[in-house]
Specification:
Subcellular location: Cytoplasm
Keywords: Amino-acid biosynthesis, Aromatic amino acid biosynthesis, Cytoplasm, Transferase
Protein name: 3-phosphoshikimate 1-carboxyvinyltransferase
Structural class: alpha/beta
CATH architecture of the largest domain: Alpha-beta prism
CATH class of the largest domain: Alpha Beta
Family: Belongs to the EPSP synthase family.
Strand content: 25-35%
Shape: globular
Largest sheet: 5 strands, mixed
Number of helices: 12
Subunit structure: Monomer.
């Protein structure tokens, strides 16, 4: 058995590597033990997956890697290019389930999108008016939160008749706050028809009739981002700026700042007015329209967190290329948490390196950290925290219960299968060091991913130190990172173990 708290200090690194597996035009990848096989996970439920995967423990993980393009930036850029004036070219786009459902939906309503370089380069010709149809456009958005929230806002402003629906879990994810924000301003009707204000969403409007609106920000920053990106479409009819007021707490502020930055790259004018006191409202004023541009999309910082964490967990040394602390994506701040835990961080002009070969005292430190701004990396941190020398308290992420799965309760349940002691809190969780693992090669444990890509990728990190971890439905990583498993194999220098069902 691998000692989960063995001294990691002083190990030499091995397997120097600059790894980036060739992307495939298919957007979801899984493999059987005897062959490589592609599978469209939008047609599969978690129980239908053809394999489980074990990541094999070994020595320190060392090397360099460039993750694929940012999902958050790709879907924002697609939306703005789709409704901009002229033809835009997007370089470094992510090829995944989430971006596929966005491009597919945009094509259905008449947006011309050409795909080159296996989908990593997209040429998008924008539309300026609503598509004409006697019946609603039926748009399938799988379990893509960005797609349903961004399109709900944008299509209500563009005008037209649409139904947005997805997988069963999507019909449990709240969108009522966004619909409530739009209902008073649309010229027509908009409704979330599932219990609790969840999709499917029915939209039939002639655009927005008003230019001042309010939205709650405590569940998802994507509501505000969607309204912000829709605002230039609403302004076309009246030449009036749009003012958005965020009532109450706003979660994940860096994603809103990312949206504002991207909108300004595309030519819109955005003024964010942050309150002096936390209890005061955020104001956003937007004017102008979207122009055609050429834009290079950064690698995905949320995906990068897994490779930085691999260095921390294994006592290794990993460089992620294509990102710096000046990146548009707030999740690059995950390295600051690793630094608090004892890792050394080195920043290059276009790279961030995490070094854990000489940890103080040979072990990671537990931390008490508010992760509201980087909530997509909570699962990543939870895996690192298992191998720290003291408990880790995660705060500020109550909204994580409403993502692809309950990323507090379900995460806690799976970690307990490994023998971990976990306390759930209203706003997060406490992860205690894993003193007596309940898993080994001789006593394997199967972990449920809940069809959540971040669950699967995070669980792979625990496998770097613990034998016997079987991860169900590995194909679910296709939502945002189809080549994750092959990229991880190349970085760690050893093959995973795949089992057929």
């Amino acid at each position: 058995m691998v000692d989960p708290h063995g001294d990691l200090g002083g190990h030499d690194c091995w397997i120097p590597l600059d790894s980036r597996a060739a992307s495939t035009p298919d957007f979801v990848l899984t493999r059987t033990p005897d062959s490589s096989r592609f599978m469209n996970s939008t047609t599969e439920s978690p129980s239908d997956a053809i394999a489980t995967v074990r990541v094999i423990p070994g020595g320190p993980v060392c090397g360099s890697i460039r993750p694929p393009g940012s999902k958050s930036l790709t879907n924002r850029a697609l939306l703005m290019a789709a409704f901009g004036r002229g033809t835009s070219q997007l370089e470094g786009a992510l090829v995944s389930e989430d971006t596929h459902v966005m491009t597919d939906s945009l094509r259905k309503i008449g947006v011309e999108i050409e795909s080159h370089d296996a989908g990593r380069t997209l040429v998008v010709t924008g539309v300026q008016s609503a598509p004409e149809s006697d019946s609603p456009y039926d748009l399938y958005i799988a379990n893509s939160g960005t797609t349903v929230r961004f399109l709900t806002a944008a299509l209500s402003a563009l005008g037209g008749n649409y139904v947005l629906s997805g997988v069963p879990r999507m019909h449990e994810r709240p969108i009522g706050d966004l619909v409530d924000a739009l209902s008073p301003v649309v010229d027509g009707r908009i409704e979330a028809v599932s219990e609790g204000g969840c999709p499917p969403v029915h939209i039939q409007t002639a655009g927005w009739a008003k230019h001042e609106l309010s939205v709650a920000g405590s569940v998802s920053s994507q509501y505000l981002s969607g309204l912000m990106m829709a605002a230039p479409l609403a302004s076309r009819r009246s030449n009036q700026p749009v003012t958005i007021r965020v009532v109450g707490e706003l979660v994940s502020r860096p994603y809103v700042e990312m949206t504002a930055d991207a909108m300004q790259v595309f030519g819109a004018s955005v003024e964010l007015q942050w309150p002096a006191a936390a209890q005061d409202d955020v104001l956003v004023q937007i004017s102008g329209d979207y122009d055609a541009i050429g834009w290079s999309i950064e690698p995905d910082a949320s995906a990068a967190s897994y490779f930085w964490a691999a260095a921390a967990i294994s006592g290794g040394d990993v460089t992620v290329n294509g990102l710096s602390r000046a990146a548009t994506q707030g999740d690059v701040a995950f390295v600051d948490v690793l630094e608090m835990m004892g890792c050394q961080i080195e920043e290059g002009e276009d790279s961030i390196r995490v070094i854990a070969t000489n940890l103080p005292g040979g072990q990671l430190r537990g931390v008490d950290v508010d992760m509201n701004a980087i909530s997509d990396t909570v699962q990543t941190l939870a895996m690192v925290a298992l191998f720290a020398n003291s408990p880790t308290r995660v705060r500020g992420v109550a909204h994580n219960r409403f993502k692809e799965t309950d990323r507090i309760g379900d995460l806690a349940s799976e970690l307990r299968k490994l023998g971990a002691t976990i306390q759930e809190h209203d706003d997060g969780m406490t992860i205690h060091p894993l003193s007596e693992p309940a898993v080994s090669d001789e006593s394997p444990v199967r972990l449920d991913t809940y069809h959540d890509h971040r669950m699967a990728m995070s669980f792979s990190l625990a496998g770097l130190r613990l034998g016997g971890i079987e991860i169900e439905n590995p194909a679910c990583t296709g939502k945002t990172y189809p080549n994750y498993w092959s990229d991880l194999e190349q970085l760690i220098g050893r093959a995973h173990h795949w089992t057929a069902e």
